[in-house]
Amino acid sequence: MIPEFAIREWSEHVPWTESEQVEQDLLICRALTEIYKDEYLASHLAFRGGTALHKLFLSPQPRYSEDIDLVQINAEPIKETYDHIRDTLAFLGEPKVKQKKHNNTLIFRLESESIPVVPIHLKVEINCKEHFSVLPMQRMPFSVVNKWYNGKCDVLTYQLDELVGTKLRALYQRRKGRDLYDLYKALTTSDINIDNVLACYQKYMEFVVDHIPTYKEFIINMEDKMQDDEFLGDTMQLLRPDEEFNPQEGYEVVRTLLLDRLQK
């Protein structure tokens, strides 16, 4: 789909380890731009998750992120949103749709232009449950400049503190070392309001569980993960070549700045 020269050009912007990662990154950037150029989608969906954090707030983007995570702003039927996404992302082909009660995913399947040919899966996930924000949402400019595609838009997203708060929830709920890395990177390179982060974490955790993890429970959770080789090695193929990350040092930062502030 994308000419090889355009992929090489994009690799100067995002020097990921594998050529197919560079190709998928460019596809994601075009998809994101097309979504927010659509007036309906731009007013009905908010951009969240690791890709939002890395594409909008951390520069140069330190970590490869492979999905587009969106949140339905209002509680309403999802069909019209699906129709608009299919139309705006028609260049990716017809998606496979996986529907759950509160989470709907469109998966676009392609093959890489790079040799050897490998499958590329671009996932657009829509949260259809969390129709709220703790802090006021904001619109941020986003653009793509490449010989294959040029475009720009204003992306509706959350404030950085809120994205970090949801990342803290993800750190507890998932076994992905990239969540630890994202928190460490945001805390050490950005102007973060810790009180805001913890307030957002509390609100989002309250929304999905009856019992908010205590400090002790969170620490036990993390001590288990910090012995897990898969968790510790999760970011090995995801970081820029010049980016280094020591999970133990990252955990020390996250624990000191965030976890030590949790309910004892």
TrEMBL record:
It holds the Pfam family AbiEii. The keyword Transferase applies. Keywords: Transferase. GO terms for molecular function: transferase activity. This is Nucleotidyl transferase AbiEii/AbiGii toxin family protein.
